Structures are given as structure tokens and as C-alpha cells.
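Structure in, sequence out. Go:
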């Protein structure tokens, strides 16, 4: 998680709102322009916050980028947990998780470019964020294997494969083509997940 200066964390509702405005602005600016082509000035102007006020909440452009990535990773994790809560079957859980991920992407399209950017801003940050997301996912896959819900394979291979699948399906279907995330797409995706490419 980000090592933020505790003195910069807002203590009032107004401060929290201002910080959130800066984060939402940064999400748009970084998502649209890319990290290296973005500036603190553009973030503050879009947020309607003074440049001096920016430094009340963040020490640098890098820190607002890092905070944004961790915040969004946390938000996505909460969405996935909520949407899959109460489902016992692993395949159904994955289906609902894939749908929730694609719906999240549709609502927050600029978010999608942030994680790939991190690889070119700070490779260690990029790796940490991916690992923090993957670790509990791997544990849940292992639990499903232990109770015989799915067959035993390398759980890391499964999780990182699923993450890769969702990355490119989201890019193709949601961002590039603007297609609807319907039952046909999810059913065909789950057919692949369940049976692979064997006849």
C-alpha cells in the first residue's frame, strides 16, 4: 500500500471531498493523456482546485498516481467481493466476477489504462499492485480445489491466466468495440474456462 505522509491525509469532510476531486480528475487526466504527458496543473484545473491546495494532499504527481492506483485496486476488489458473495460454485463465482469486472470497466473506462501505465512509471509498484490483487484470489482458487469444486492445477497459473483473459476481453469488447456485456459473451467465456479448447 502507498506510504503516504500522514500529515497529508485529510481530517475533515471538506478535505476528503477535495482529495477525492483531485483523484477523480487524475483518473481522467492520466487515463486520457498518460502519466508522462500529464501535469499537476492540468489535474488541478480539471478538479477546480488551486495548485497550492494540491500539495495539501499529495507531495507530487507520482504520489497522486500511486494513491489512485491503490484506491482503484481496492475499489475493484470490493466490487468483486460484493458481486460474488454467497455464491458457492467456483464456475458461477468466476462468471459473476468476470461480469462485475467488465461492468466496472464500462463505468470507469479511463481506469483501464492506469495499471498498464504503472509498468512504465514504476515497475515495482506495478508488480505489487498485481500481487496484492492476485494473492487472495489464488487462496480462494486453492480452497475450491481442496473441496473438489474444480480440478487441481497450479492456482497461480489459473489466476494470472484469468487476469490476462479479462484484460484483453475488456479492451476488445468494452473499450474498442463498445459491445454489450451480455449472457452470450459470458456463456462463451465460461465454456472456454470450463473446457479449454479440447473437442
Amino acid at each position: 500500500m502507498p506510504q503516504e505522509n500522514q500529515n497529508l491525509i485529510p481530517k475533515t469532510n471538506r478535505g476528503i471531498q477535495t482529495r477525492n476531486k483531485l483523484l477523480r480528475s487524475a483518473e481522467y487526466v492520466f487515463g486520457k493523456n498518460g502519466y508522462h504527458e500529464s501535469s499537476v496543473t492540468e489535474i488541478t484545473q480539471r478538479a477546480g482546485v488551486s495548485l497550492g491546495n494540491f500539495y495539501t494532499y499529495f507531495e507530487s504527481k507520482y504520489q497522486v498516481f500511486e494513491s489512485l492506483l491503490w484506491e482503484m485496486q481496492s475499489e475493484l476488489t470490493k466490487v468483486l467481493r460484493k458481486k460474488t458473495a454467497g455464491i458457492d460454485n467456483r464456475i458461477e463465482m468466476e462468471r459473476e466476477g468476470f461480469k462485475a469486472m467488465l461492468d466496472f470497466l464500462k463505468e470507469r473506462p479511463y481506469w483501464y489504462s492506469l495499471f498498464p501505465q504503472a509498468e512504465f512509471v514504476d515497475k515495482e509498484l506495478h508488480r505489487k499492485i498485481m500481487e496484492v490483487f492476485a494473492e487472495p484470489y489464488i487462496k480462494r482458487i486453492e480452497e475450491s480445489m481442496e473441496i473438489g469444486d474444480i480440478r487441481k492445477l497450479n492456482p497461480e497459473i489459473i489466476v494470472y491466466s484469468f487476469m490476462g483473459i479479462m484484460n484483453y476481453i475488456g479492451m476488445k469488447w468494452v473499450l474498442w468495440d463498445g459491445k454489450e456485456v451480455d449472457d452470450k459473451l459470458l456463456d462463451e467465456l465460461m465454456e472456454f474456462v470450463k473446457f479449454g479448447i479440447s473437442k
